[in-house]
Q: What sequence folds into this?
């Protein structure tokens, strides 16, 4: 799956991922009205609106992008109907041949981590049958519990040719409270980064590991250090756009081969029609605004990488 | 909700929580056979077996215990039907007046943490209506992302009179890889513990905060230190029984008032019938074996606390 991700990045010349993190207030009124007409102002109605909104954005962008990253929390808050919309979104994106990174940030220990890995990347046995539950291609994972939490995920990834992105340095302002604390003179995120490099060796693709890292665009200097610590690990970079990261901040997240990083934008793409730059599209053409925002993001990153 | 938890602990003289972490291989053959007869060897069949198994154990133990802790990963691996079984389990336990600790170990930042908090503890707005999604009483949360990840959970807890247990020192062998690293001479888990004490002040009950901590029974010496650092925070203690923690290890997790800790046992209770000590109950009376295991656990802890 890391090979597929890299091939699609190269084919589209677009090291980007679209974050499908739908909030009801991003969704145009006409999409909500249609869904509520059929299902009422219910969890089912919200879930239907979310799926239609996602589908239109995917239809308008799938030929330009290698991957999507649905944020499961945005679906989970709508309970069972929300989880069904999440699963439908994953399946729909896969039907469009997109790589799907489940932004689930799960993490536990032993058999519980194995169960999460099964839920999102593997298949579960029931009697003599087996079934995929959510079946994303990659999942994001929290490292706080150490190897006992990560290895069960890697075991499933090896069986299924799938991968992980492990949180190393997150994009938020308070990420330093724990992640930047110095241990023998080096910040915790570097120690985590070194473990990711080590874990990555367990499940290598051709040049890159199936095991990647999450490092926020908002910390470019730390990205530079982490790039060196984890030369064979793909870095998933959130925080571009709405969170303040800019194209020029991203240069150091890439390796000299022009690979090694994939930049996420969520709100900046899916709610583009709400921004001044794209308001001429109007609410009814929100998906076209998203397409234009993808094109602009790709060219922003390209021009930053050329310099 | 912390008051309800404390009242129920005192009423039952039982500072324990039963972990509802069903694995298919814990579930007696006759329960699975019934479920598969109706639903086939499908995700729905597994979910039906899980719910029936949980229900019988809850029916046999609810009068002895204050709380249950369903581990969502064990349900999530069965996809949508598994999530429905999770929700049914939460609802059933609440109908028996049990406090429900959702062991979900979620954690993200900003609006995404808020969405997780909404999913598990709050209510979501859809048009002019609002709905509870999973509606547990407490949730477990991962601290790696810092205050930006935790505060949105606390905001929802304040609205709903609900609470959290934040991972501080986990029970697994490799928990030390990051959690024990020294920062200015003190381990990371102490720094996290001090933050939990600080966050706890934001949402206080009478003597204890709604914001608690998770500290593994397998590290009693660290439990002692953390008890002092977090005097007003309840400690949820996993790792008793199957993971090797014993009654005598638990003494230091409690305050002098005899409160302040709640000890979890999962496999040791729900799969008691598989242990030598309870095999006389037989597979058909698995729920009675669970009841006996609860009684034995309560008396083990009581005798340890008296010494």
A:
């Amino acid at each position: 799956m890391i090979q597929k991700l890299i091939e699609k990045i190269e084919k589209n010349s677009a090291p980007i991922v679209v974050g499908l993190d739908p909030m009801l207030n991003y969704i145009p009124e006409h999409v909500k009205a249609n869904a509520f007409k059929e299902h009422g102002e219910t969890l089912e109605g919200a879930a239907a609106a979310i799926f239609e909104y996602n589908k239109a954005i995917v239809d308008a962008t799938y030929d330009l992008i290698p991957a999507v990253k649905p944020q499961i929390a945005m679906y989970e808050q709508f309970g069972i109907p929300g989880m069904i919309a999440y699963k439908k979104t994953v399946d729909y994106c896969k039907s469009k041949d997109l790589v799907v990174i489940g932004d689930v940030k799960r993490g536990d220990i032993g058999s519980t981590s194995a169960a999460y890995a099964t839920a999102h990347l593997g298949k579960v046995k029931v009697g003599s049958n087996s079934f995929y539950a959510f079946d994303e291609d990659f999942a994001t994972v929290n490292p706080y519990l150490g190897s006992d939490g990560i290895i069960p995920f890697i075991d499933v990834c090896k069986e299924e040719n799938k991968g992980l992105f492990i949180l190393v340095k997150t994009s938020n302002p308070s990420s330093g409270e724990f992640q930047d604390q110095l241990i023998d003179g080096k910040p915790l995120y570097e120690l985590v980064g070194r473990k990711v490099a080590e874990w990555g060796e367990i499940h290598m693709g051709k040049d890159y590991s199936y095991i990647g890292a999450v490092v926020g665009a908002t910390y470019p200097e730390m990205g530079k250090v982490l790039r060196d610590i984890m030369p064979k690990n793909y870095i998933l970079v959130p925080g571009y756009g709405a969170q303040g990261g800019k194209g020029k901040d991203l240069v150091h997240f890439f390796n000299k081969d022009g690979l090694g990083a994939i930049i996420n934008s969520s709100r900046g793409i899916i709610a583009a029609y709400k921004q001044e730059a794209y308001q001429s599209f109007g609410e009814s053409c929100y998906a076209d605004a998203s397409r234009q925002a993808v094109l602009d993001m790709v060219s922003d990153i390209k021009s930053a990488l050329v310099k």
